[in-house]
Design goal:
By secondary structure, the chain is of the alpha/beta class. Among the domains are: about 395-585, 3-Layer(aba) Sandwich (Rossmann fold), CATH 3.40.50; about 650-760, Immunoglobulins (Immunoglobulin-like). Helices cover about 30% and strands about 15% of the residues. It is built from 22 helices and 27 strands. The strands form eight sheets. Strands 12-17-16-15-13-14 form a six-stranded mixed sheet, sandwiched between helices. Strands 18, 19, 20 and 23 form a four-stranded antiparallel sheet that branches. Strand 8 (about 260) and strand 9 (about 265) form a beta hairpin. Helix 16 packs across helix 22 (about 575-580). The structure holds 1-deoxynojirimycin. 1-deoxynojirimycin (NOJ) binds near residues 62, 157, 210 and 290.
């Protein structure tokens, strides 16, 4: 008797070959191969190595600026693509140099960090994930592609699919939170939104899955820090979204800045070749992160850029970014240290991407300025406003303070209330801030003609002067008020005294999250906490609109402030979207994809914690149980949590065994028992009480976003198939073990139904 049913990894390869993006008819693939072989036959070694180079094209840098004579390099065939150059005319001109002035006229790739929209900016990815709305997320990626390709870009460095369990890490803002199952679903739809199944369509762009791999697990949440974990953990917790994106057909992958198993990702053959290509069947090309190859030297694994380049290319890294390390490969080939075949493989993969994008057919296909009319068009902005509202999470609503009525006097207070450049959020490189409304403007528009009065005072800067010292450079775009903290607070209190209700727009600055934005104190900055405390003393109803690029500690606020909405950074249409939710034109439906801790010391932290010896019950201190003496083991607001202005009831689930490929169906009825239409997210969690390897108590394995009118009910069913029960066992084999399984449903990961139990 076989103890385990093993899913053969070969099955994954089979699946991959069925993907529409990769399912080119063998004829067109043969044509592509013939075309590229003929081209490569004419290429010199220098020109082949040139294809492996991706210098910064514009003045948007994401590392130390690098200067070079790019135009001349393009003419000499030493450049394969450029990134962060903006504008169809400019890109057309650079493409013209490549096509008309270089010997072989090979077109360039133009990449950009189009992370959550182009000029129509969607919420930061962490926020967007809280919508759990796969159609809307795919649509957001589609709109980003339509706008970026209309402006000359054919390659986005997105989706960022790094799972993170650590709110200290600033880049948690760029991903989809803490759960690998949800992260994988989001990765798939984003790839589809960018690439569609017609990569050669001029509104499609090449996706780039990043950062491969495990970047979200940097120790202590400190940016670029060491990563170390067992393969057991990496395959069960971190790898699923990368794999899903690859299997959805993503054309490129970016290496991560960190180390995996002692080897930097940029030079890690096990990762870039064995796992990515051999195990998962990836057929695209791998690009370095910004100067990432040179960092092998910082890591101390190679004494020179030359050796770093050799290690990287041999590991399977095809394209260099923002460095000239790969130029040294010419010498390495001549000295016999790298084979021509290795260079050829990398060069071919990059040329294939260009071919699939249709650049050889028409190198200017993304360079038609007339197409720009679509950028920030009404339809795109409407979609951004809708998903921005869906991404907001109502954390607390004591006494149904929200939604606010559009009458009386409302005082809007806080450093983020009228802060235009903070609306878009981090990683909005194509943003045109002057077009985006501030919250104050959005609220004023929403109140127009209602007779309600909107008063405003900034109340404080983001931080006290002393707190901001040292990190001042990242706040270049923040307009700091030169008045004293006392004078600003006094003004705010005077304004608040005249109001019926106070709305506070507070939180971190947009660049307090994102790259190189690790923080250990993730509570509200003192300047704002002190202001909030002073406002609370007025005894008036207060709503906190909390702007954040990460999960933060809202312990104090949750105790003292009656109503809190986590707005994240909600993008170019965020101001209108916040007003929609605040005044109830849209009922909030966001659910956390990263749980909020009571205390920063709980990190790393996830709802998906493993069964331990001496388990803890109730979350509080219990001698000889796994717990803390001074803080709960539970989160303040759990994964999957989010309130609504209406109420939902979920019935106990029912299990119906099936024959054939489906093991059974779990069904439950969800009812809107309140008085408003609303949406919520029904979540399905799996438990495997006995397994060879230790598994988490619960793991998300399904979800559905449901909209219901007041009083309406819907039966929701989930078909349970064997692959949903699989995990990587301690030997690293993807396995489904026979025995008992349990399933629970609920509207967050803590308040779950009784389990339905079945045997496999
Ligand atoms: C550095 C970041 O780590 C990466 O996410 C980004 O795509 C590149 N720079 C290019 O800007």
């Amino acid at each position: 008797m076989t103890k385990h049913i093993t899913i053969l990894l070969a099955a994954a390869t089979l699946l991959l070959s069925c993907h529409p993006n990769l399912q080119k008819s063998s004829r067109s693939e043969r044509e592509m191969n013939r075309y590229i072989s003929a081209l490569m036959h004419k290429m010199t070694l220098e020109e082949k190595v040139g294809q492996l180079s991706l210098p910064v094209g514009g003045d948007i840098t994401t590392g130390e600026p690098r200067l070079s004579n790019t135009a001349e390099d393009i003419r000499s065939g030493h450049v394969g693509g450029l990134f962060n150059l903006k504008g169809a005319e400019q890109i057309r001109e650079v493409q013209r140099i490549a096509v008309e002035e270089s010997r072989l006229g090979i077109p360039l790739l133009f990449g950009m960090d189009v992370i959550h929209g182009y000029e129509t900016i969607f919420p930061i990815p962490l926020g967007m994930s809280c919508s759990w709305d796969m159609d809307a997320i795919e649509h957001a990626a589609r709109i980003a592609a339509i706008e970026a390709t209309a402006d000359g870009i054919c390659w986005t460095f997105s989706p960022m699919v790094d799972i993170s369990h650590d709110g200290r890490w600033g880049r948690i803002s760029e991903g989809s939170g803490e759960d690998p199952y949800l992260g994988a679903r989001i990765a798939e739809v984003m790839v589809r939104g960018y690439q569609t199944d017609q990569l050669a369509d001029s509104t499609s762009m090449l996706a780039c899955v990043k950062h491969f791999a495990l970047y979200g697990a940097v120790e202590g949440g400190r940016e670029y820090n060491f990563v170390d974990m067992s393969r057991y953990r990496m395959f069960n917790e971190y790898m699923a979204p990368y794999e899903a994106a690859v299997k959805a057909g993503a054309g490129s992958v970016m290496a991560a800045f960190n180390v995996v198993e002692g080897v930097p990702c940029h030079g890690n053959k096990w990762l870039l070749t064995d796992v990515l290509r051999e195990q998962w069947g990836f057929k695209g090309f791998v690009v370095a992160d910004y100067t990432g190859i040179e960092h092998l030297q910082d890591n101390g694994v190679t004494p020179s850029h030359e050796l770093a380049a050799i290690q990287a290319i041999q590991a399977g890294l095809d394209m260099d970014m923002a460095s000239s390390a790969y130029q040294t490969l010419i010498g390495a080939v001549r000295n016999g240290k790298v084979s021509v075949a290795t260079i050829d493989d990398a060069c071919r993969r990059i040329l294939e991407a260009k071919y699939k994008l249709g650049l050889f057919e028409d190198p200017y296909r993304y360079c038609h300025p007339a197409r720009r009319a679509v950028v920030r068009c009404a339809e795109h902005r409407e979609a951004a406003r809708k998903i921005a509202a869906e991404s907001m999470v109502l954390l607390k609503n004591e006494g149904n303070l929200l939604p606010l009525a559009k009458h009386g006097t409302i005082a809007l207070i806080g450093p983020l209330a009228d802060a235009r450049t903070h609306m878009a959020g981090t990683w909005s490189v194509a943003a045109v801030h002057e077009h985006y409304k501030t919250l104050r403007e959005g609220m004023a528009d929403a109140l127009q003609g209602t007779g309600a009065e909107l008063l405003y005072a900034k109340g404080s800067n983001l931080m006290y002067d002393a707190e901001q010292e040292g990190i001042i450079s990242i706040f270049g775009h923040d307009i700091r008020d030169s008045r004293s903290a006392g004078a600003m607070r006094e003004e705010a209190l005077n304004v608040a005294r005249k109001a019926d209700v106070i709305v506070c727009a507070m939180g971190e600055g947009s660049e307090s999250a994102g790259e190189c934005a690790s923080r250990v104190n993730i509570e509200l900055y003192d300047a704002q906490r002190d202001l909030l405390a002073a406002l609370l003393k007025l005894g008036k109803p207060i709503v906190l609109l909390h702007f954040a690029g990460r999960p933060t500690v809202l312990e104090w606020e949750s105790k003292h402030v009656p109503a809190i909405i986590e707005t994240w950074f909600s993008g170019s249409e965020g101001a209108d979207a916040i007003a929609d939710v605040l005044f109830g034109d849209i009922n909030p439906s966001g659910h956390l994809t990263t749980q909020l801790p009571h205390h920063v010391g709980q990190y790393p932290f996830s709802y998906r914690y493993y069964r331990t010896s001496r388990p803890n019950t109730g979350g509080t201190f219990g001698k000889y149980s796994t717990c803390y003496q001074d803080v709960s083991t539970y989160p303040l607001y759990p994964f999957g949590y989010g309130l609504s202005y209406t109420d939902f009831e979920v019935s106990e689930p029912v299990w119906t065994k099936q024959a054939g490929d489906t093991i059974g169906i779990i069904s439950t009825t969800i009812t809107n028992t309140g008085h408003r239409e609303g949406a919520t997210v029904l979540q399905l969690y799996l438990s495997d009480p006995f397994s060879e390897g230790v598994r988490p108590y619960i793991e998300l394995c399904g979800f559905e976003r449901i909209s219901l009118k007041a009083g309406e009910s819907q039966i929701v069913t989930f078909a349970i198939t064997p692959d949903m029960l699989a995990y990587y066992n301690p030997k690293g084999i993807k396995t489904i073990e026979p025995g008992e399984y349990q399933l629970r449903v609920g509207l967050n990961s803590r308040d779950l139904s009784k389990p339905v139990i079945f045997q496999l």
